[in-house]
Amino acid sequence: MKKLVFMMLTAVLLAVAPVYIAADTADTAVSKADNDTTLPQGTPQQEKPLQGQEAQKSGTEKMEGEKQELDEIEKARQALQYGLESEILEVVNKVDKQDFETLQGDFNRLFTETKSPAVREGLFGLYQKYEDAQLTESAVAILEDYEAQQRTLVKAALSYLTAVKPELTPALNEALQNMLTQDTAEYGAETVSVLGEIGGGEEAAFLASYFDSLTIDDAKQELILKQTIMAALEKLHSENTRDFLLERAEDENENIYVRSSAIAGLAQMGNPDVIPLLVKFFEQPEPLLREAAIRGAAAFDTAETRNLTLQGFKDSYYKVRLEALKTAQKTKMQEAAPYILYRAKYDPTDAVRFAAVEALTVLNTDEGNAWLSETFRDSKKSEKLRVTILSTALKHNPAALAADLDTVVLATVTDSKQKKLRYEFGKEIAKVENTVTGEICKAFLQSDDVLTKSIGLDMFKTNAPADARALVETIAQDDKQGALQRRAQRLLE
């Protein structure tokens, strides 16, 4: 019986299967027919989807292009108004001086509106960088209520005030002295630094009195603050602290930093009776005292102080030699020229060599200029030395390199092996306003190298040579230049 039932079911299945197969075949045929009627003969089936993809891609690229074309200033404004803290700080940290001036209203508004201490700190740093005093009132307000503020914000405000050197108002003076006496360990050094920059005779007397009464549990911290106070008193060099400074300078048990600031501060008062003390200090074994003696000698122009400065060029401690260079440069001491040239040629410390190079450009002697020119031309000399010569000559004495400037710098523009030197030369040229680098600017703007062209725009921004304007206009009209095009457009506005 079971066998009979199985045979009957098999027969039924065999009969039904062709029906399903036929239906599938028919559906496929209809589908194919439908497709054939919607496409021209010989056209691939995938053409329509690909056209759609291309259209979508084209639209996306257009949108991206429009987004890139959005003015950089407008993008910055939107970030400052609507952006996250990180986006705002990105703008604040990378803005250049021209953009800072353009966006200053936005920055002012942001400082007033923001509740973010980090953003306020960033803005203090920005205004400090460009020495803009517009945030002075806000900084004073923070100091007046410093206990309610974040520590880092208070320190940013103090650093800002030290840099921009506003007028010392009664409110600011009171806030600073209150912080110094009430929270010495936390803010003492910073408040003293501000007073040292903008204080007067009364503040100097206050600091001298505070020095004598100062006591902090941490001996190291106390010493640091005392050194900071003495550095401030050196800057103020107020006559009413003369006796105090003299006592500190002559006390051989006093800290060396304290004594060095004291003698330098005394010298800056300009009383020649301190000159014998300067000579005495230069004979001391402690290099910091010898350095202070040379620093003090800069306040005088006598045979004794000039001789002291010349001796400083031969001191074994490099900071004494540096101070001698600063003094000779400040006083334009012509008799020091041979000493300075020797330092530029042979000093074992780069910092001294480069300082000597700058002093040579300031003194402008025939022998010094000849060495500067010869060294600048010499490809075997270190690139850093040659770049330093270019930089200092542009600042102080462009005529020293007038005959060599174009020859040396233009040679790097076409030589790929000198690309690094080209960039360094270009960056220094772009920093200094001058009238002697027009041809170099044009060569940089015509380069196919993106960074070289960008540095050329920096040069144009600084000096705007008239005959280079057409090249900047060409870049501004070239859609293939990307970011360089937008920079060029802004420079032409």
Automatic annotation (TrEMBL):
Pfam families: HEAT_2 (PF13646). The keyword Signal applies. The keyword Signal applies. InterPro entries: ARM-like, ARM-type_fold. Residues 36-58 have a biased composition (Polar residues). Gene3D superfamilies: Leucine-rich Repeat Variant. Residues 59-69 have a biased composition (Basic and acidic residues). Residues 32-69 are annotated as: Disordered. Residues 1-22 form the signal peptide. Keywords: Signal. It comes from the Bacteria. This is HEAT repeat domain-containing protein.
